[in-house]
Design brief:
The protein has 263 residues and is α/β, with parallel strands linked by helices. The protein contains 10 helices and 10 strands. Strands 1-2-4-3-5-6-9-10 form an 8-stranded mixed β-sheet. Strands 7-8 form a two-stranded antiparallel sheet.
């Protein structure tokens, strides 16, 4: 696997050669390395390239002023060519971005999106809290271990099992002996706006799934939004980490079904 910065400042890791393209899009507060458990499966079976970006304002990618869904989606679209056949697995925020890219509005050919644990229901209090967090000053910590622990909590990865040390290391930065999270606090300011409209506008194959124990994106909220999600037994909000084999099986089944009907 190789990694470098794109022309628009995204850190992008990739593997594989020419052919179909699979894009793995992480959720809010995380980075591309959270896909490591699933990547171990995808690397054996995917017949082309796999792209794993850190979204703008996350991990090893640049910070900026604008973190709208449109801007984040455009960043990813610029990694792809107009003739690429693209499939996407996205988690939470990444699932929304996958659906947005699947509208066709960004000039790329998306055939299939598996959207995991997309939060459909947002209260005014949650939206206001996100905007408040976005205005908070950077919190500096005195030790690396404190920063690693904070990253694991903010990203929702604490105590869930698989080794996430590579993601944790990419999720913090050091400056003059102090440590902070690599994310820009500004990313929390627009995470709720337009989710329903985007999910209802997708023009390609869409599979929605969530964990049976996901309190952030429960199946009941997804059903209430007009979608019928697949429920992953015993999983929480990070099924792509804790149940990577089941997630990959869902994606493979959706891909086979789409091929069978001639798409």
């Amino acid at each position: 696997m190789t990694g470098n910065h794109s022309r628009n400042g995204l850190w992008v890791e990739q593997m594989g050669e020419a052919g179909e393209v699979l894009v793995l899009i992480h959720g809010l507060g995380a980075n591309g390395a959270v896909w490591d458990p699933l990547l171990a499966l995808a690397a054996r079976e995917w017949p082309g390239r796999i792209l794993i970006p850190d979204l703008r304002g996350h991990g090893r990618s640049k910070h900026d002023e604008n973190y709208s869904f449109g801007t984040l989606s455009s960043d990813i679209a610029e990694l792809l060519g107009a003739t690429d056949k693209v499939s996407i697995i996205g988690h939470s925020l990444g699932g929304v971005l996958g659906a947005f890219l699947g509208t066709g509005w960004f000039g790329i050919d998306v055939e299939l999106v598996l959207a995991l644990s997309v939060k459909m229901k947002w209260s005014k209090e949650e939206i206001d809290k996100g905007r408040s967090v976005a205005r908070n000053p950077v919190k500096w910590l005195s030790t690396r271990n404190e920063a690693l622990d904070r990253y694991m909590k903010v990203s929702g990865l604490a105590g869930i099992g698989p080794d996430m040390s590579r993601s944790a290391n990419a999720g913090i930065v050091e400056h003059e002996g102090r440590y902070r999270l690599a994310i820009d606090q500004g990313i929390f300011g627009s995470a709720a706006l337009g989710v329903g409209a985007i999910m209802n506008t997708i023009a390609c194959g869409l599979t929605l799934a969530t964990g049976a124990n996901d309190s952030v994106a429960p199946a009941s909220d997804i059903l209430a939004a007009g979608f019928d999600p697949i429920v992953i037994d015993k999983a929480g909000h990070n099924a792509h980490v804790t149940a990577a084999d089941e997630v990959w099986a869902l994606f493979s089944a959706a891909r086979r079904k789409r091929s069978a009907v001639g798409h």
